[in-house]
Amino acid sequence: MGSSYFYLEFLLGWLEILQKAGYHNPAIFALEYTLVPDQIYPLQLQQTVAGYEHLCSIIKDPGRICLAGDSAGATLQLSLLLYLSKASFSGRELEERQQRKPGFATLISPWATLVTPKNRDTPSDYLNADSLHLYGRQYAGSISNLKDPLVSPGVCKDGEWWTRASPSGGFCFMYGSEEVFGPQVRDLVALLRRNGCAVRVREEPGQVHAWPVVSLFLANTLGERTKGLRDLTKMIREVIEPVEGLIDGIGAGS
């Protein structure tokens, strides 16, 4: 939905669940990036990189940072990870960037490949593949950019690059079995696993795009509304254990 203000209830609910899970001083940094058609690539990636550098200036141990995002926000988080691990950086610079990698990345229904025939409408999902491809082309700005992994991370088939890009604690993917992006998410998960990356997956049966966010607003009971947030927090806790007195940061992109 673009604006972090739309996600305010979701983020505040997550903050409370993190505290109940034992994190004494959790902090959520929500990135407000410029939307298409007001601006196109590379501005949004530049804003994401700047936001992450700001986080690293506050939280001295990047291993305490968990990236998070849904849909296009998750795309930008994947682009950020690939950017931080580009082989084109000099040896010293690449080493320094590798030391700034986050501890974990939780990706909700990532739009990994902007334009692909694998994006197909389903009877249940509210997304439309043709509209998505239109927006994806607008963001990329050119046909050639659609082949750039920093624009469309799912086109990256370089296993060594993904291995360098992986957070120290790996990835978590959450998506619905009935969503348009399902096939491409499964392909990315398989690629990461083939190359030794730690990957946790929650494919929710019968659910649609960004189901943890949708459920928070539309589900009937409190338990149903917060299920996605509780599942995410449980997986984060398996990787980044609470430590009293430390700030634990979640960098969120929507």
Structural account:
The protein is an alpha/beta fold. The chain is built from nine helices and six strands. β4, α7 and β5 form a beta-alpha-beta unit. α1 packs across α9. The model has no long low-confidence stretch (mean pLDDT 93).
Q: Rg, please?
A: 17 Å
Strands across the major sheet, in which order?
1-6-2-3-4-5
Number-wise, the strands total 6
Oligomeric status:
single chain
Defining traits:
254 residues; alpha/beta; 6-stranded parallel sheet; globular; 6 strands
What's the helix and strand layout?
Blueprint: H1 8-20, E1 26-31, H2 43-58, E2 65-70, H3 72-84, H4 91-98, E3 104-108, H5 129-140, H6 159-165, E4 171-176, H7 182-194, E5 199-204, H8 211-218, H9 222-239, E6 248-253
In short:
With 254 residues, this protein is α/β, with parallel strands linked by helices.
